[in-house]
Amino acid sequence: MHQSEEPVVISAQNVSLSYVANEPIIYDATFRVHKGEFVFITGPSGSGKSTLLKSLYGDIKPRTGELAITNTPLSNITDSSLMTLRQHIGIVFQDYKLIKEWNIEKNVMLPLLIAGYSKRVCEAQVDKLLTHVKLFHRKGRFPMELSGGEQQRVAMARALSHNPTVILADEPTGNLDKYSSGVIWKLLEGANTQLQTTIIVVTHDIPPAMSLKYTHYSIQGGRLVNETNRYEKVRR
Amino acid sequence: MNMVFREHISLIAALFTILFTLQIYFVIDRTIVMYEATLKNSYSVIAVSNQPIKIDLAKDDVKEIEKIESIDPRKVVNRLKDELNKEDLGILKENLPNFYKIFFKHYPSPDKLAYLKSRIEQIGGIIRVETYSKTHNQIFKLLVLFKEISNVFLSAIFLVSTLLVIKEMRIWQFEHTERMHIMALFGAPIWMRSAVLFKVAILDAFISSILVVITFLVLDMNGWLHELFSMIAVDVDIFKFFQDTFKLLVISIVISFFLALVTILKNRETYDR
Fold first, then answer.
1. How many CB atoms lie within 10 A of CB B173?
2. Which one of A54, A55, A63, A83 would you mutate to disrupt binding with B, by most B Cβ within 10 Å of its Cβ?
3. B53 vs A130, more confident
4. A199-212 per-position pLDDT tens digit
5. Whether A185 contacts A173, CB under 8 Å
6. B129, B58 in Cβ contact below 8 A?
7. Contact call for B179 and A58, based on CB within 8 A
8. B44: which DSSP letter?
9. What is the ipTM of this complex?
10. In the predicted model, what is the mean pLDDT of residues B93-103?
11. Nearest-Cα residue of chain A relative to residue B196
């Protein structure tokens, strides 16, 4: 872990996750993610990758163990505290999760509106981000009028808009072609290197150029295995 | 746009039906009150007394009495002047009792009328009370029947409309769950997630109230309904602009607000955890 001097953003100690009691999907997971770290979580379909990610934004509670994001324990978090915590997290989904009744500008603005920024600040930030993801010219359009790659770029802009501490991405390139996938990986890498944003990506397809650069966990039979060291050995 | 229109129109239609039913209920209620007042004004019982009764004391004794009018005995005698000779008429005039017309504050039910009759009979000097109960009962029963039938009819419409609103509530739940879920993922507090629902609810409440107001204003301006009411000698206000608009608006907002609130509370579990 090359960034172990940085503060801990996510810490999990013996965490077990399940939807049904006594049928855990993730067993005894222990890991730490530091500020500015880029982490891949891989595993076969149904292995529990997305469940693990869900637990990081509080959509599922750990059955056992301790899970904390930015020092906020998630085990017994209240609804209002969870909402406050989520205001420091950016989330990107495979199916984009854009609000279809809102135009692109308003979709990107959502986290800023929630944070209570003024309209002027919101508009300036949205313009900057849409320019960054090369969609400024389409800000008045609605999600259904955009291609999948464009929608995911909008979702990326939304996830970055409030300068979150951590971005959680669930199969962000799962529905995209090679070119669009490349754009999304660049945006994620850019956020990590330029803004020091912690990035956790659940994927089954790590780009070769990135596979040796970043922390990598895989889920095997419900257990979280740190693959980084294995790659380090290969690299050496 | 189509979806937004569809979403609005179905709630507006359900709210419109409820408000329309309620306004009809108000009109019927107003008609019955007015008709009862008309009946009350024209209905009286006749009391016969062997001595002049003290009207103020009688009214104190029987609180339901509004007024007592003395019937001029000459009117009774004049009807008989062709059938009786002068001497008999003189004797009749000397022995004629006092006749009174008694009016009540409210149009009484048959039971109440029987009770009032017994109370009047206890007033000093009263020897007979005629209530014309057969005619009274027929009119009263017709009034009650009209009331009951209209209540059943309006309740049925209200029930069906409420079911429509509940169905609409389910559609709302379905259509707004995704948006509210996405907002929750980015940490929107519940009031912010729900704001759009309340906005739609209040907007639809306004639109449906305005549509009902316009409908009843048109009906009020149209002579047909007034002609119908004039058949029962009642001139009722079909739409009292300020009073009814206010009532409809408040009811509509309360129903829509309740609808939005139920939708939000039912969704709460699914989008929070």
1. 17
2. A83
3. A130
4. 999 998 898 888 88
5. yes
6. no
7. no
8. E
9. 0.90
10. 84
11. A101
Are B182 and A98 an interchain contact pair (Cβ–Cβ within 8 Å)? yes
**For chain B, how are helix, strand and coil distributed in percent, rounded to 5?**
75, 10, 15
Task: Name which of B89-103, B122-136, B161-175 the model is least confident about.
Answer: B161-175
In the predicted structure, residue B139 carries a pLDDT above the cut 70: yes
Per the CB < 8 Å rule, is B186 touching A85?
no
Give residue ranges of B with CB < 8 Å to any A CB. 3-4, 178-179, 182-190, 192, 272-273
Select from A110, A142, A166 the residue whose CB has the most chain B CBs within 10 Å, as the one to mutate to test that interface.
A110
Mean pLDDT of B143-153: 84
Residue ranges of domains in chain A: 99-163
Highest mean pLDDT among A142-156, B5-19, B222-236: A142-156
Contact B272 A97 (CB under 8 A): no
Beta bridge partners of B46: B101, B130
Q: Which alpha helices (DSSP H) does chain A contain, by range? A: 49-56, 79-86, 104-115, 119-132, 148-161, 178-195, 208-211, 228-235
Closest CA to A99 of A142, A134, A138: A142
Q: Report the chain A residue with the minimal C-alpha distance to residue B3.
A: A101
Lookup result for tokens 């039979």: A221
Q: What is the pLDDT of residues A32-72, one digit of tens each?
A: 999 999 999 999 988 999 999 999 999 999 999 999 999 99
Chain B CB contacts of A80 under 8 Å are 189
Please check whether residue B93 is in contact with residue B73, taking contact to mean a CB–CB distance below 8 angstroms.
yes
